[in-house]
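User: As part of a screening pipeline, I want to sanity-check one entry by hand. Below is the sequence and the SMILES for pyridoxal-5'-phosphate. Please return the complex as structure tokens so I can compare it with the automated output.
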Amino acid sequence: MLIPEKGRPKEEIFAELERLKARDLDWKAGRVWAYVYNPGDETREVVSQAYTMFLVENALDPTVFPSLLRLEVEVVRMLADLLRGDENVVGNVTSGGTESILLAVKTARDWARAERPEVKAPEMVLPMTAHAAFHKAARYFGVRPVVVPFHPETYRADVDAMRKAITENTILLVASAPCYSQGVVDPIPEIGALALEHGLLFHVDACVGGIHLSFLRKMGYPVPDFDFSVPGVTSISVDMHKYGYAAKGCSTILYRDKRLRRYQIFACSGTTGYALINPIVLSTRSGAPIAGAWAILNYLGEEGYCRIVRAVQEATRRLIEGINAIEGLRVLGQPDMCMFSFTSDTVNVFQLADEMRRRGWYLQPQFSTPLSPRNLHVSVNYGTVPAVDALLADLREAVEVVRRMPPPDPGLVQAVVAALVENPSPETIARVLSLAGIRTTELPEEMALINEVLDALPDELVDQLLIHYFNDLYA
Ligand SMILES: Cc1ncc(COP(=O)(O)O)c(C=O)c1O
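Assistant: Here is the complex for your manual check:
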């Protein structure tokens, strides 16, 4: 593919974009139960208009675009208040949950360098349910992740294990509100007390839960404490582009006070160029996500969010009851909000995901761990509320279809796993992929066999395999 010598008519361009889009799953019909957070057409239009208004403005320099400074500060203030922080809470808008988490870890590392210089090999303690972004941050910033188990019944972090994992090198504790995989909130007050006892920083990842849980609490639902009202919590990440229903590219990182946030900011004036000052990872950044977030907070207001949150929570309740009522399926743990996962001892859930996909639904496969079975993840959002009954009806049928299917050939799975474990070279990976009928430059339609193999392999090998596959896919 080359840049066309002459520009193409815009009608042709949009027609082609539409054609490409037609291959995606239909999120507008509420069929995608992950990745997408749809507040409805009217609200989405407001976000879209605000987004477009600030598409070109650059938040890199608040002296040139003071509007963006104002909008960012107001977004942060609104969320700080929602999360029961006082006027000392500060923060920034970032490009997503991952960036917020990267910054929380980098800030902790730099805080420790300044305030605990005796720590030469910093560590953070996190439950296995914490998001992979913390492992990415650990890799990027040279902080060792010390992973502790969760309770296999409740999926909540094992606080005793966290306590035992603390060493003289520990700088940061991490917990989720809730974790993505099973939607349960960790025991934040107990972990906060642990952080205070040991003089550690404590980051609460409320990327998915910050907004939804806070409005649930305001409406009187039972919600475990997870925000700045909990002593010991020093920073919180909250995504606007998830259950804030803003456009993608928008999260926030909040700190209990400015003394800590100082370690987040980077400045460099020693080049021939302009003096660079970046409060976050990105330097040039569009004003669009900030304006979109500001617009939706103001457009929906507390009333609008409560309306959405109530509808989503009610749909989640019906869905969980409906899934638990299907013979052979069961929801894991006791989810605290509108995301959860379910498993089965009698039906292959990877095949079930494929069967649902054939019917136009996306349910997200998650692998087993030593403490949890393989399962399918479901994130309910406002756009999926009308599709609950249709999803349950198809799920009931799909379970019966899968029951009658032969499972992925165990002999083939075993042979592939053995070959990869013995020699995980790029050549073996390529051979295995072609054996499984997978062309590396195309996306596979059926994932059950691949998931079966991946689930049986050690994590490090899965990571290698996926890196190899993606390295070829984006070609
Ligand atoms: C709990 C949690 N934290 C962090 C992230 C990372 O957010 P993002 O995908 O916006 O980078 C996610 C994403 O799903 C999440 O669920």
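Points to compare against the pipeline: Residues 124 and 145 are 5 Å apart (CA to CA). Residues 410-473 form one domain.
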